[in-house]
C-alpha cells in the first residue's frame, strides 16, 4: 500500500473513531516517542553520573533557580512531558546541532 493511501485511510479512521481529546493524547504520545528517540540517538544532554553537558542542570531548574526539577534522575528526565523533552539548553544545542535543529 502506498504511503499516501495509508495516510488517507488512517485519517478516515481518526475522524470516525477518535474524539478530539483522544487524538490529542495520541498525538502527544507520538511526538514524545519521536523526541525520545532523537534524545537517545543524538544524546545532546550527555547525562552521566548525575551531570549533563551544561554541568549543573540549570535548564531543568524552574526559572534557573536553585531547586532542581524533581523529575530528574542520574540518567536524565523521568517525566513523559513533550514540552520538557523537546527543550534543549544552548550548550546541548551546540553539542548536537542536528537534534537541536530537529526540535526547532
* Number of beta-strand segments: 2
Which residues form runs of ≥5 with pLDDT under 50? none
Shape: elongated
Report the sheet with the most strands, covering strand number, pairing sense and barrel closure.
Answer: 2 strands, antiparallel
Mean pLDDT: 75
Radius of gyration: 17 Å
Distance between the termini: 32 Å
User: Which structural category fits the helices and strands?
Assistant: mainly alpha
Strand order of the largest sheet: 1-2
Estimated helix fraction: 40-55%
Give the number of helices. Answer: 5
Helix-strand sequence: HHEEHHH
Percent strand equals under 5%
Q: Could you characterize the architecture of this molecule?
A:
This protein is mainly alpha-helical. The protein has a domain at 43-104. The protein contains five helices and two strands. It has helices at 3-17, 20-42, 82-86, 90-95, 97-103; strands spanning 72-73, 76-77. Strands 1-2 form a two-stranded antiparallel ribbon. A hairpin with a 2-residue loop joins strand 1 and strand 2 (76-77). The radius of gyration is 17 Å and the shape is elongated. It starts with a helix and ends with a helix.
What is the strand and helix layout of this fold?
Layout (H helix, E strand, L loop, with lengths): L2 H15 L2 H23 L29 E2 L2 E2 L4 H5 L3 H6 L1 H7 L1
Antiparallel strand pairs: 1-2
Helix pairs in contact: 2-5
